[in-house]
TrEMBL record:
Gene Ontology cellular-component terms listed: cytoplasm
Location(s), subcellular: Cytoplasm
Enzyme class: hydrolase
Reaction catalyzed: Release of N-terminal proline from a peptide
Family assignment from sequence similarity: Belongs to the peptidase S33 family.
Entry protein name: Proline iminopeptidase
PANTHER family: PROLINE IMINOPEPTIDASE (PTHR43722)
Compositionally skewed regions (Basic and acidic residues) per UniProt: 1-19
Length: 340
């Protein structure tokens, strides 16, 4: 449950609700909506094409926006936090979602070539394609995991990092979200669990359902997965009923198939490796913004990262959960402005 969505930077049938994106309201975002000045499909191998778009100042400071999910697609709302006169704002849809092709909603799409390693390579290929030497990285939730993995692999390519709703996709984080929270939401979790026989690995069980040939089985599993996601944010001021499960089928299926695929494999990351290797980020300034009321991604991970990364500053937003708040939106704008 680590998310974010789109409008023009995404296919029309995919829905437009924000997933795990910071709250950026008209009161907190000083910059207007802007259209991309360039976009395209980048060949990344494995029969995959990654959609990208660029907006703002073509000669400005490069900034890459990394969406959440995994599998949610990019959002035009995210670029409102950037001064378009200062930044060259680059966005992309990760493999299998948004306008990238092929879509994970298609059961014939090969998920073996959709891993964290592939996404890191896609980011580097995009940087080279656009002729960018170094860039600022901004993203939230799953996006923060991917940013950390990329930055620890290529620290020389990063000018700064802004993370919102910090996660590292450890198995303990995944287990908390899809099992531990049962202690707080017992009725909702009972329904979530009831879709599968027995009491085994729920994430792996749902992953297998999303690989079934019967479209009705896949659709029902995707709906129930997102119903659980809805329950986890229901207490938040910006959470709304059906925020995830009411999305169109194509977006729903792509999102849940990618999400379960990544979480069943703990994102192909050794447990705790992103925190252990945070020393590789030395010299890179970072801003960590996290809601104290975030049930799905508790504050612990953000705090641990701040301890391991001396160049990062942690900002705890007392009134925010994972979907954000006006105060969180203001913190995001201030954090990005630091790099302007």
């Amino acid at each position: 449950m680590l998310h974010g969505t789109n409008d023009e930077c995404r296919w029309r049938g995919a829905g437009e609700r924000p997933r795990r994106a910071p709250a950026l309201t008209s009161a907190t975002v000083p910059f207007p909506s802007i259209d991309p000045y360039a976009d395209g499909l980048l060949e990344v191998g494995d029969r995959n094409q990654v959609y990208w778009c660029a907006s703002g100042n073509p000669a400005g400071r490069p900034a890459l926006v990394v969406h959440g999910g995994p599998g949610s697609g990019s959002s035009p709302r995210a670029r409102k936090a950037f001064d378009p006169n200062v930044f060259r704002i680059v966005q992309f849809d990760q493999r299998g979602c948004g306008r990238s092709m092929p879509s994970a909603a298609d059961p014939d799409t090969d998920m073996v070539v959709n891993t964290t390693g592939h996404l890191i390579a896609d980011m580097e290929r995009l940087r080279t394609h656009l002729g960018i030497d170094r860039w600022l990285l901004y993203g939230g939730s799953w996006g923060s995991t991917l940013i950390l993995a990329y930055a620890e692999r290529y620290p020389e390519r990063v000018t700064g990092i802004v993370l919102v709703g910090v996660t590292s996709t450890r198995r303990r984080e995944i287990d908390w979200l899809y099992r531990g929270l049962a202690r707080l939401l017992p009725a909702e979790w009972a329904r979530f669990r009831s879709v599968l026989p027995g009491d085994g690995d729920l994430v792996e069980g749902y992953r297998r359902l999303l690989e079934q040939p019967d479209p009705a089985v896949r659709r029902n599993a995707a709906i129930e997965w997102c119903r659980w996601e809805d329950a986890v944010i229901a207490h938040e001021s910006l959470g709304s009923p059906g925020q995830y499960s009411a999305e169109p089928d194509t977006a729903l299926l792509a999102f849940v198939r990618i999400c379960t695929h990544y979480f069943a494999h703990a994102a192909w990351l050794d447990e705790g490796v992103l925190l252990r290797e945070a020393g590789r980020l030395a010299g890179i300034p970072g801003e960590l913004i996290h809601g104290r009321l975030d049930l799905s991604a508790p504050l612990e991970t953000a705090w641990e990262l701040a301890q391991a990364w001396p160049d990062a500053r942690l900002h705890v937003i007392d009134d925010s959960g994972h979907t954000g708040s006006p105060a969180m939106g203001e913190a995001v704008v201030r954090a990005i402005a630091r790099f302007a």
